[in-house]
UniProtKB/TrEMBL annotation:
One Pfam family this sequence matches: APH
Protein name as annotated: Phosphotransferase
The UniProt record lists the keyword tRNA processing: no
Domain Aminoglycoside phosphotransferase: 34-235
Alphabetized InterPro entries for the sequence: Aminoglycoside_PTrfase, Kinase-like_dom_sf
Keywords recorded for this protein, A-Z: Transferase
Entry GO MF terms: transferase activity
Keyword Hydrolase tagged: no
Length: 281
């Protein structure tokens, strides 16, 4: 990160605040109003370029989001790709599901972008995680690989037969920032062309998995205008979502709370328990 900051003309900040660690590491530099996003490797070049393109396109349509800075980007440093984004201090309580629903409703009302986007397909990244992960039991990796094999054909058939448009790809309350009274939808790394239902599934499944009150989900449905659980493809998309969430967590599940949560999720997946409570980390 420090090498990239030098290249972008930013001062070095050894005490930069780590905001998030997943597919990317996000560091806040509040004094210069910048968030530094560090991708795991240069193999993510296409995804990084897509995220920048989507962010700039959304800004051109006046959609409320976080914009990339004017720094030349992405920058390759130490085998990683680094991008720079506007910093928004998020001191408000977590956004409500109705705020998320309104953002998704407005996003889905936009025309499809005038540049190519990939068709929604989370399976390659899930398989890549399984190939490179270390410190996870072999039987867990084998189970997840087999689960992907069993679910992938149904997912592809559903996507191929459904109307497809711009989707955010990773739509949950954690990707909403509140800048004063203005809510911003962030993180366009998973943006794709696919069924809009994909963006609605995380909130719907949160009732079973994360204890979202049914009354809150009802408010989400009223605001957005559709109940995805009534759609014939809901179960297929939910299965894929849960595999994605579990393989994402797996990357940092060698010890501590993440390891405990990974074990819990694996047990529920093995048992086919759709109501076992999961915990957001």
């Amino acid at each position: 990160m420090l090498v990239a900051c030098d290249s972008a003309g930013l001062p070095r900040f050894p005490d930069a605040e780590l905001l998030r660690l997943g597919e990317n590491a996000l560091f806040a530099l509040p004094d210069v109003g910048t968030v530094v996003r560090v991708a795991r490797s240069t193999e993510m070049a296409d995804k990084v370029a897509k995220e920048l393109s989507v962010a700039r396109w959304l800004a051109g349509h006046g959609f409320p989001g976080v914009h990339p800075t004017d720094a030349p980007q992405p920058i390759e440093a130490d085998g990683r790709l680094v991008t720079f984004w506007g910093y928004v201090p998020d001191s408000s309580p977590p956004a409500s599901v109705t705020v998320l629903a309104a953002l998704l409703r407005d996003l889905h009302a936009l025309p499809d972008p005038d540049f190519p986007l990939p068709v929604l397909d989370p399976y390659p990244i899930m398989r890549r995680r399984l190939e490179v992960v270390s410190g996870i039991r072999r039987e867990d990796i084998h189970f997840l690989a087999e689960a992907c094999d069993n679910a992938e054909d149904d997912f592809r058939a559903l996507v191929g037969s459904s109307p497809s448009h711009l989707v955010h790809g990773d739509a949950h309350r954690g990707n909403v920032l509140c800048d004063g009274d203005r809510a911003l939808l962030i993180d366009y790394e998973a943006a794709a062309i696919g069924p809009r239902a994909w963006d609605l599934v995380p909130t719907a499944m949160a009732v079973d998995r994360f204890g979202l009150p049914p009354t809150d989900y009802a408010a989400f449905v009223r605001t957005y205008g559709t109940d995805v659980t009534e759609w014939h493809g809901y179960r297929v998309l939910r299965t894929t979502r849960e595999l994605g969430m579990t393989t994402w967590l797996m990357q940092n599940a060698q010890s501590g709370p993440a390891a405990d949560e990974f074990a819990l999720r694996m047990e529920s997946l093995r048992k086919g328990d759709l109501e076992r409570r999961w915990h957001a980390l």
